[in-house]
Amino acid sequence: MKIGLTGGIAIRNSNFSEIILPALGAVGIGIVIVLISRYTLGKLPGISVPDAVATGGLFGAVSGSTLAAVLPQLDSAKVPYEAWTAALYPFMDIPALVAAIVMASLYISKKTGNTSEKVEIWPIIKESLQSSAVTAMLLGVALGILTKPEPVYESFFNPLFRGFLAVLMIIMGMEAAQRMNELRKVAQWFAIYAFIAPIVHGFLGFGVGLILHKLTGFSIGGSVVLAVIAASSSDISGPPTLRAGIPSANPSAYIGASTAIGTPVAIAICIPLFIGIAEMMLGR
Question: According to the per-residue pLDDT averaged within each range, which of 36-45, 87-96, 186-195 is highest?
């Protein structure tokens, strides 16, 4: 609910007429990132599809800390960007998480069901959207857009979230420790993926930003923001949603890949890389 409220408030405070096409681009990027993971990481030996899809969902979702890191660096480099670009993150974050849950559910249904019968996708999508985590997140988005929940957000949801997150991380750490043996045989694949994926996803986001630049005048700085949120991987919103939506996935795999490797690569490599490209394009 807190994650959804954050996104809904950001959307409401933005100029939605300007944000429509970049938002659609962000939606597409989030879903494509999950597909990339499904058909690259998920095809490697020893890696289960639920683990690969959950990892893709986490990398398709957005890190608020990485987003917060790029904005002041753009300001320092005097690279202009639209003030509302930070509001793009829920458009990438939520579709990536939902897509990951749907893909994992579809795979599990095919694996456990009668393969001779056609698997109906819509019931799986409906069931995924009705899961407690996704429903609460989407409800939060709606309330953030349609109401003004800032007072209750600041006094209740924001402080409460920190306590629940601490408890959640302890529980997920215990689960990860219990399932560590499952990861040892394939850890190298997750490490390689976690290093390469942020850079690839960042170029995907930057490319979409440049297309929007040509079509709508979307700024080069905005393209950098889109690239960085595509390169980032969620360390807050993703884990609880994926734990609820894909319980068969191993938290050691997707959290370890994201937190230990993906986030440092996004911050230390991708942010200066794309700001540098933007400066070259601006003739500096």
Answer: 36-45
How far apart (Å, rounded) are the C-alpha atoms in residues 81 and 25?
A: 17
Phi, psi of 207 (to 5 degrees): -65, -45
Contacts (Cβ under 8 Å, ≥6 apart) of 65:
235, 263
pLDDT mean across residues, the chain? 85
Give me the mean pLDDT over the 107-122 stretch: 66
Report the alpha-carbon distance of residue 280 to residue 284 in Å, rounded: 6
85: which 2 tokens?
A: 């670009």
CB 142 within 8 A of CB 8: yes
Q: Which long-range contacts (CB under 8 A, 24 or more apart) does 121-127 make?
A: none
Residue extents of the structural domains in the chain: 2-281
Helix axes 121-129, 89-112, angle to 10 degrees: 130
Distance CA 11, CA 249 (A): 31
Gap between the Cα atoms of 213 and 216, Å rounded:
6
pLDDT band at 229; cut points 50, 70, 90: very high
pLDDT tens, residue by residue, 126-179: 665 666 766 777 788 889 889 988 888 888 888 887 787 678 667 766 766 665
- Contact by Cβ (8 Å): 86, 240: no
Q: CATH classification of 2-281, choosing from 1.20.1530, 1.10.287, 1.20.1250, 2.40.10? A: 1.20.1530
CA–CA gap between residue 236 and residue 62 (Å, rounded) = 9
Per the CB < 8 A criterion, the answer to whether 53 and 238 are in contact is: no
